[in-house]
Amino acid sequence: MITAVIIAVVVIAAAAVLFVGLRRTRGGGSGLKHRFGPEYDHTVARHDGDVRAAEQELRERVRLHGSVKSEPLPPGARERYVAQWAGVQEQFVESPQQAVTEADALLARLARDRGFPDGAHFDEQLAALSVHHAHSVHGYRSVHTAARGQGGTEEMREAMVEARRLFDSLVAEHPADSTRNGRPATADRGHTSWALPRRHAKGSGTS
Questions:
Q1: Among residues 77, 88, 164, 181, which one has the fewest Cβ atoms lying within 10 Å of its Cβ?
Q2: How far apart are CA 189 and CA 173, in angstroms?
């Protein structure tokens, strides 16, 4: 009788531990999905659908970079960055490849100035950015890929448009300043518009 009671207690305890573990796993996955958004799906895909491995990587990113705090830009830096980005967008019309290369370098410098790891270590910088700007970091990844000569003109144009979201977030004085009434804050300052023209970019092959 005593043996049966002990076995029953052990089984119940094991079931309780398993239940709590499953709840924590599901809760953690749900929390990571909410925090990382599209970056969560990208990481799962990069791990060939292995959710556990992807979530382990994302948790490690949070552990390493979750405490990063955005540093204020030096006086006058915001205006310089806005002007430089506008110049890169204008350059895209004549030289898309050069434009994405300069956009890649500009984002690396801007992220460094805001307190993120140096852009010389792209993977580390991207990982840190993904923890704090998960919904806009994909554009930076696309621009970095395009800067290495991968993709055609249309892919480069799309990468530039997507990267603008991260640029606006980083260049804003505060996160809430990155958009105003649904528009990028930098667009209100008389610089190049959000979208890049398709038909004028050399080699685009579109009309």
A1: 181
A2: 14
Cα 40 → chain centroid: 10
Q: What is the pTM of this model?
A: 0.73
The angle formed by the CA atoms of residues 114, 142 and 31, to the nearest 5 degrees, is 65
- Expressed as residue numbers, the domain containing 57 is 2-65
Summarised one tens digit per residue, pLDDT across range 111-169 is 999 999 998 899 999 999 999 999 999 999 999 999 999 889 999 999 999 999 999 99
Asked if 52 and 18 sit in the same domain, the reply is yes
Q: Do residues 92 and 144 share a domain?
A: yes
Q: Are residues 84 and 109 in the same domain?
A: yes
